[in-house]
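EI: anyone free to look at a 274-residue chain?
SC: sure, send it
EI:
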Amino acid sequence: MTPRTIVITGASDGIGAAAARTLAKAGEQVVVVGRSAEKTSALANDIGADHYLADFSDLSQVRDLAGKLKAAYPRIDVLANNAGGIMGKRTLTVDGNEATFQVNHLAPFLLTTLLMDTLTASQAKVVNTSSAANNFGKLDLFDLTASQGYSTNRAYGTGKLANILFTSELHRRFHDQGISTAAFHPGVVRTNFAADSTSHFRHAYRTILNRFMLSPDQGADTMLWLINGTPGTDWISGAFYAKRALAKANPQAYDAELARGLWEKSEELVKQFV
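SC: here you go
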């Protein structure tokens, strides 16, 4: 069989790196995207993959990444939007957006929409890494910069909620053009996640509690199941999953009008880069 072209962002560490290794070993053409030049190139060299660098806190780098991917790969079978993270105190990016919201939602939104012609022509899967932390989120379309009542955990939860809303709206808009999409919770994975944040979650990753967390390979399981499975048979496009099963999300995640509104607001926020 012809190898699939699979682009994975946030692939320099954690579940992204684990998935990249597994897929490359299976003979797929894996393209890894990361922020760290050292880690990303090391992984790419190890598994024989192409690699690209992009810092999602700068949307101009996302636009440049999309241009390079479109030029290099006329077909993209899978886009795994895996990059993201939990931040510290409220900060604005060079683009004027709240950093957590931009890195977790706006950047993957922009990357996906810029690649849409290639993705639809390829009948691609778009797999979005969300989190059970979406339940901590509260999306306010009139305060996407979190200027009111900011907290590190709520901002992260809102970003992960946005991933699910993006998934459902992506399905609504593009499924009839060949796109299949799903969001998923990988579980609590033993990585460097939250190490540089002010979230209380960072303490768990530094203590004996990390012994009870999943390995990156275990955390990548649902991502790989979505990538390798058949939409409509193994999983439902537009839905949210955990442990290879449909999962319950924040009540806001099922608000179709909110999903539509988030898409429109996101288009406005990234329009200068489209």
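EI: The CA atoms of residues 226 and 234 lie 8 Å apart.
SC: 👍
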